[in-house]
Amino acid sequence: MVRETGANLKRNPTLTLASVLTISVSLALVGASFLLRDGVQNATQRWQGGVEVVVFLNPDVTPAQRAAVGRFVDQNPLVKRQTFVDQQAAYKEYRRIYKNQPELRDVLTPTEVPPSYRVVPKQATVAVVDDLQRVLSRRPGVYRVTAATDAVKKIERLSGLLTTGLAFMAVFLLTAAFLLIINTIRMAAFARRHEIEVMKLVGATNWFIRIPFMLEGLAQGLVGAAVAAGGVFGLNRLFRDRLDVTGPQSFPLLQSFVVDSSHVVSTCVLLVVVGVVVGMVGSGIAVGRFVDV
Predict the structure, then answer these.
(1) 198 and 285 share a domain?
(2) Is 23 in the same domain as 68?
(3) Which of the two residues, 114 and 39, has the higher pLDDT score?
(4) d(CA 65, CA 273)
(5) CB-side exposure of 42: number of CA atoms within 13 Å?
(6) Angle at the Cα of 281 (from 32 to 29), degrees rounded to 5?
(7) Which of 120, 147, 174 is the last residue of a domain?
(8) Edge to edge, what strands does the sheet with 53-57 contain?
(9) Which residue of 114, 212, 229, 251 has the lowest C-beta tally within 10 Å?
(10) Which residues pair with 207 in a beta bridge?
């Protein structure tokens, strides 16, 4: 059967090359969609890590009230960390923000600018941010609590849409690769249909005829998946090097889309496994109509 498999691969070099290229391109696109999905999730998580809930205190808040709010924030299990900004620091920030607008810059005095706590939640989801905003706004001495709730909602919605869309794209590409492999192996079996009939007449079993084609699909799937995995790994390495912040042509804004090396390796291994499985199963299905007669 191994000898027959080798003969099949040599006998149809054009079809073999077509199958390998089909698997390579399809699985490379599948791997790229997987990595892009991971990049979107990384970017979303890093963006959420910078979300803050700002707790503005009354300008005339008492030391006891301020300390009580600080303790409440420190003891809250939803809070990752907090930073206190006193009136002097808040006034400097206020003047820096409105430095080009003197009509607003000179309106307030240092005693009129409220101090605040800058609170970073452990999970910057809409539910957590809303919960923190609700409970903190009820504390004595708190003037107002602000948070980018609408921005968090938009980011979560966009991330969900991109992740779902890329997952559907990966499934679509994998299905296309599967169908193309079936068609390619079916063409090879059709070209040898008379030889298959002769083998059946002399007593060859269906599995004896089917297995060389399945091994042929396995070899094609393995080679194609290996090429795809190498391409995905190389493109990811090039993408990561291009985003190096120390390089002359870096893109710091896209740094959050860089995928960890462990995810790249696991994706490449998955591509090889999928290529082998798709090649064998597709070949078995394709040749079935010629042996089950």
Answers:
(1) yes
(2) no
(3) 114
(4) 61
(5) 15
(6) 10
(7) 147
(8) 79-85, 116-121, 53-57, 142-147
(9) 251
(10) none
